[in-house]
Amino acid sequence: MLVEEIGAALTGRPHETIVVDDGSSDHTGEVLAKLAAKGLPVRHMRHDCSCGQSRAVRTGVFAARGDVVATIDGDGQNDPAFIPVLVEALESAGAEAGLAAGQRVGRTDTKLKQLSSRFANGLRRAMLADDTRDTGCGLKVVPTELFRRLPFFDGWHRYLPALVLREGYGVVHRDVRDRSRRFGTSNYGIFDRAARGALDLFGVWWLIRRGRKVPDVSENPLPQREPVTELPEALAQAKGRVSA
Hints:
This protein is of the alpha/beta class.
């Protein structure tokens, strides 16, 4: 089970696993209740209707209690063993990095899907200059505070490198192993994904152009007056009165 794999991968690290149930009609709640009863640090966030992957990611991000959020697809294609690899990559990169992104190797998808993905990734890199080979990989690690302030829209999870760069942070990459799908079925077709992706791509391009300058902000110390210990006479006389 994926939740148990995540727990095993993060042994020795304080963590929680947030499962976002996007309005499913299966027995997710019962399964998670059994895992929680066994002592696994799992939480169940449920949408009352299906809202899609982007909204599910956002729900998890705002529910998170940790300093960093690691995203992972629920279909089993992402290997949880790479979560600590990405966490360590982000930590090693220092405060200037805002994202550790997995890039899949050994893809298990059909050749047609791989070719369409390669084309989409190439076009995105050319337009957004995000220097990321594969944004479709669900394995990503982002500081929670930064994640929460990224502009949200349906499809944002595919543009996290560009959105993080827009905030003035760097992106680090690690190759991750791709696995065959274990759970569920894909709700995306090649052509409908392309149509949505084209609109999102131009939207992110516009966002980057409208926010390209990111200043380094520092506070200049100002002289401080001594705190007032006695009230002026007029104010002292008025003390206790209420104006409505």
